[in-house]
Amino acid sequence: MKKIAVLGTGQVGEALAKGFLANGFAVMRASREPAKLADWKTAAGGEASTGTLAEAAKWADIVVLAVKGTAAENALELAGAANLAGKTVIDTTNPISEEPPQGGVVRYFTKANESLMERLQAKAPQARLVKAFNSVGSAFMVNPPFKPEPAMFICGNDAGAKQETSEILAKFGWKAVDMGGVEVARPIEALCQLWCAPGFLKNDWAHAFGWLTLK
Ligand SMILES: NC(=O)c1ccc[n+]([C@@H]2O[C@H](COP(=O)([O-])OP(=O)(O)OC[C@H]3O[C@@H](n4cnc5c(N)ncnc54)[C@H](OP(=O)(O)O)[C@@H]3O)[C@@H](O)[C@H]2O)c1
Q1: Strands 128-131, 62-65: parallel, antiparallel or unpaired by DSSP?
Q2: Which ligand 1 atom is nearest residue 13's CA?
Q3: What percent of the chain has pLDDT over 90?
Q4: Are 154 and 130 in contact (CB under 8 A)?
Q5: Most buried by CB count within 10 Å: which residue of 54, 78, 99, 117?
Q6: Quick check: is 70 in a domain?
Q7: Of 111, 170, 106, 183, nearest to 142 (Cα)?
Q8: What's the pLDDT score for residue 142?
């Protein structure tokens, strides 16, 4: 049974932890204050556990980063570069700044020619980061109800980590589309802005992206 650390106690951590448990993985959820996950652990049962970010990252085979974008670099530090070394780290984060959206577009603290994932990869060079799950709402991350099968755009520098993430995405009902290396996180992170715009402008939050090809 593969062991998954889910770093993050928000909606994304909640949804993905549930999805991993339902698909036969062991899950440790992590927080700076693990005690606040006690009710979740009791409700989730057998293969669920809780810990600090460092404890979870050390225990896991695969790590999911699901914290506030402004806290993502700090969360990696708390997890510990040594605990993450050689592991697939699925990065769900977006670099959303504290300022309110402008015309329905969430503002980012990163610049156009950089991404949060590039900053994270530089901070933990031996971790095998893969961007995924960042451009759809948490309610649709597992078993998305859309037809045809929606696409999840992923990127990262390690082919094995992307393969492992693609297999998880397939279990969760997604077609993974590998778009390239870590730099492609720039446009993939921007997709979150596009995904959110109909939400802020029309209160429409029920959609996902697709990918059409000739093949
Ligand atoms: N919500 C969605 O539908 C959605 C969809 C796609 C992508 N995302 C992205 O996924 C990420 C998680 O989103 P979310 O809505 O689940 O949660 P969130 O409210 O953005 O973040 C909550 C998490 O951030 C952590 N955190 C806050 N400040 C911290 C700090 N200074 N150091 C370390 N950790 C800190 C909290 O940790 P503690 O438990 O320790 O307090 C908590 O686990 C975000 O980057 C978001 O952009 C969200």
Answers
A1: unpaired
A2: 16
A3: 95
A4: yes
A5: 117
A6: yes
A7: 170
A8: 98
For ligand 1, atom 17: residue with the closest CA? 10
| 82, part of any domain | yes
Which CATH number goes with the domain that contains 141? 3.40.50.720
Residue 92 CA to ligand 1 centre (angstroms): 9
**pLDDT recorded at residue 15:** 98
Full residue range of the structural domain in which residue 158 is found: 3-202
180 CA distance to ligand 1 centroid (A)? 25
In this prediction, residue 158 has a pLDDT band, given cuts at 50, 70 and 90, of very high
Residue located nearest, by CA, to atom 30 of ligand 1: 71
CB 30 within 8 A of CB 57: yes
Q: Which atom of ligand 1 is nearest to the CA of 69?
A: 45
Ligand 1 neighbours, Cβ below 6 Å, are 8-13, 31-33, 66-69, 71, 74-75, 92-94, 96, 134, 137-138
Per-residue pLDDT at 134: 98
When the pLDDT of each residue in the chain is averaged and rounded to a whole number, the result is 97
In a domain, 170, yes or no: yes
Q: Which residue has the tokens 């990127």?
A: 155
User: What is the band of 215 on the pLDDT scale with cuts at 50, 70, 90?
Assistant: confident
For residue 207, give the amino acid letter.
Answer: H
Strand boundaries in the chain, DSSP class E: 3-7, 26-30, 48-51, 62-65, 88-91, 128-131, 151-154, 175-178
